[in-house]
Automatic annotation (TrEMBL):
Alphabetized PANTHER family for the sequence: INTEGRASE_RECOMBINASE PROTEIN MJ0367-RELATED (PTHR30349:SF41), PHAGE INTEGRASE-RELATED (PTHR30349)
UniProt xrefs under InterPro entries: CB (IPR044068), DNA_brk_join_enz (IPR011010), Integrase-like_cat_sf (IPR013762), Integrase_catalytic (IPR002104), Integrase_recombinase_N (IPR010998), Integrase_SAM-like_N (IPR004107), Tyrosine_recombinase_XerCD (IPR050090)
Domain spans labelled Tyr recombinase: 108-291
SUPFAM superfamilies reported for this sequence: DNA breaking-rejoining enzymes, lambda integrase-like, N-terminal domain
Pfam families: Phage_int_SAM_1, Phage_integrase
GO biological process terms held by the UniProt record: DNA integration; DNA recombination
Similarity-based family: Belongs to the 'phage' integrase family.
MF annotations from Gene Ontology: DNA binding
Keywords: DNA integration, DNA recombination, DNA-binding
Domain Core-binding (CB), first and last residues per copy: 3-88
Stated name of the protein: Tyrosine-type recombinase/integrase
Length: 297
């Protein structure tokens, strides 16, 4: 008996969470992509269970016309591709089923902030209150530890080891890694923990490290707003004001200071060194532009 789209989608979500061990963020991204696919097919009078090549091409074209970024379309198609492969594996589709191909990626070099710009953003957080201290500590953690936004939002007080100066970070695929930090950030954490305790009225039961005004864990949207607010206060161009730019920046700065790719891969939590290599290519390209443009280079 053929399964419905909803049943298949739900089974796929269980599969990627429970069997593949992928994150809830990945599952949610794939779910939203599949819902977009279903809506497109239903509007066109098509069966969303039938992922035909020509229909997928039209779907991608429609997504582009909506103004979606290439990276967003890549994620949507990646979800469709994984879903079709799951259905083949599950016996719902024959082995010779056409598997969606990811659209070609537009090569885009990561944006970065200079060390001076990062310092100006941190200085824009100076102030006596909890939110000033929270924002500075969160941004300093992003800028020094290179953690992802989702990783930072998921940090607990117990993630901090001040004696050894490292963070226990839960990364993609629920993989843990230890990320070292410097003495300056240790002092900032100590200041923040005191401010946080005062903010909570002495309550030590709350485990989440970074809290919103509602005393809930910071969301990625909250974090984006913090970067936007403090970055604008520091007069940093808006197109480079998003949490991930701090991760790009520390990766590039560490490479310039001589960190090898394998160590950087472990630091950033990349499963493949090919992902880490893009920072090397970026740094080399930036250096080449500098050498060609600077009159005394």
């Amino acid at each position: 008996m053929p399964v419905s789209f909803e049943t298949s989608r739900a089974a796929f979500e269980d599969y990627i969470l429970l069997e593949r061990g992928q994150s809830k963020n990945t599952a949610e991204t794939y779910r939203r992509g599949l819902e977009l696919w279903r809506a497109y097919c239903e509007e066109a009078g098509l069966d969303p269970l039938d992922v035909a090549q020509e229909v997928l091409s039209s779907f991608i074209h429609a997504l582009k016309n909506q103004g979606r970024a290439g990276s967003s379309i890549q994620l949507i198609v990646a979800g469709l591709r994984s879903w079709v492969k799951f259905r083949v594996l599950n016996g719902d589709l024959p082995m010779n089923t056409w598997i969606p191909v990811l659209p070609a990626k537009t090569k885009k070099l990561p944006k970065i902030l200079t060390e001076g710009e990062i310092q100006r953003i941190l200085d824009a957080c100076d102030g006596p209150g909890y939110y000033d201290c929270r924002d500075r500590t969160a941004l300093e953690t992003l800028a020094n530890c290179g953690v992802r936004a989702s990783e930072l939002c998921g940090l607990k007080v117990g993630s901090l080891n001040l004696d050894d100066k490292n963070l226990i970070v839960l990364g993609k695929g629920s993989k843990e890694r230890q990320v070292p930090f410097a003495e300056d950030l240790k002092r900032q954490f100590q200041i923040y923990l005191q401010k946080r305790l005062e903010f909570l009225g002495g309550d030590k039961t709350e485990k989440t490290l970074f809290l919103s005004s509602r005393r809930e864990p910071l969301s990625r949207v909250d974090l984006w707003r913090i970067v936007q607010k403090r970055g604008k206060m520091a007069s940093v161009p808006e197109e480079r004001l998003f949490p991930h730019v701090l991760r790009h920046s520390i990766a590039t700065h560490l490479l310039r200071r001589g960190m090898d790719l394998r160590t950087l891969q472990e630091f950033l939590g990349h499963s493949s060194i090919a992902t880490t290599e893009k920072y090397l290519h970026f740094d080399l390209e930036l250096r080449d532009v500098y050498d060609r443009a600077h009159p005394r280079a």
